[in-house]
Amino acid sequence: MEDEDSDPCYDESLDYSHDHALIERNVKKGMYVRCCKCHGPVEGSVLGCKECNGYFWHKKCLEELPREIRHPYHPEHCLVLQESDYGGKVCTVCRPFIRGSYFSCNDCEFYLDAYCASLYSAPEYAGRMFRNGSHLFALRKLERGSQTTGECCDRLMAEPYIFHCVEPNCMLRLHLSCPPFSFPDTVAHRRHLHPLNLDTSLVEEEEDPNDEYYCDSCESQRTSNRPVYCCRECIPNFVAHVCCVAYEVCSLLTFQ
Are the CB atoms for 129 and 107 separated by under 8 Å? Predict the structure, then answer.
């Protein structure tokens, strides 16, 4: 996978927490290697650990990694950069075992891998969260085609967004289009000029049940008996999945 290692070690003045020296490595094109921060493909001259298998960084990504962060998913405490000890720690956001550097609040057993920390640290995500009792729910965008089982409906569904609890050791996940949410009656959508109204009975009984229905926002097929947002001023109506207006809906949701 790699050519011979280069001699110079990485500048330790960056206060990086890895236990071993990072050296310049050469990764051949076409090998499936990912950066520990951005998860982007790694090839050519990169930084890697000779002792730890599969541990690579883009030079720019490593230089940008802070020693300590404040994050909207854990606003109570600062999160400190740590080096993975492969001891079975799981990222609170994406759930898989952590490989590579991560941020942690050891008092709360809250762990965030470098990728999720950078992806969800933007200020706009702070408005996509709400608390209900002991749960702090955050909106998470899933990879295309991903399926998740919701705790309320117990159904495996492919939706572009879910709400998941980011409290340590809590695995609660909720589909955005399922109870116990109460959706706002009207929202403004960035992809449409007019306000969109919630409609839970868009399909009339006399319509052909074999007809196909599509979302005008994402242009994918939708289920006819699920809540949607639609524009009453446009003919034909502009209709969108609840999920497709997730950012607009999120800050207005109420818990039933």
Answer: no
Quote the CA–CA distance of 99 and 107 in Å, as a whole number. 21
Q: How far apart are CA 55 and CA 101, in angstroms?
A: 9
Judged by phi (left if over 0) then psi (alpha if -120 to 50, else beta), residue 125 lies in: alpha
**HSE, side-chain direction, 13 A CA sphere, residue 166:** 27
Contact 165, 135 (CB under 8 A): yes
Report the distance separating Cα 46 and Cα 57, nearest Å.
6
Query: What local confidence, expressed as pLDDT, does residue 112 receive?
Result: 86
Residue that has been written with the tokens 């209709």 in this structure: 239
Structure confidence at residue 94 (pLDDT): 76
Q: How do the residues of the chain divide into helix, strand and coil, expressed in percent and rounded to 5?
A: 10, 30, 60
Kindly report, residue by residue over 93-105, the tens digit of the pLDDT: 777 777 777 889 8
* Domain edges within the chain: 12-64, 68-119, 123-175, 182-242
Q: What is the pLDDT of residue 18?
A: 55
Residue 155, CB-side half-sphere exposure with 13 Å CA sphere: 9
Under-50 pLDDT residues of the chain: 1-16, 205-206
Q: What contacts 210, CB < 8 A, 6 or more positions away?
A: none
pLDDT of residue 181: 64
Enumerate the β-bridge partners of residue 178.
none
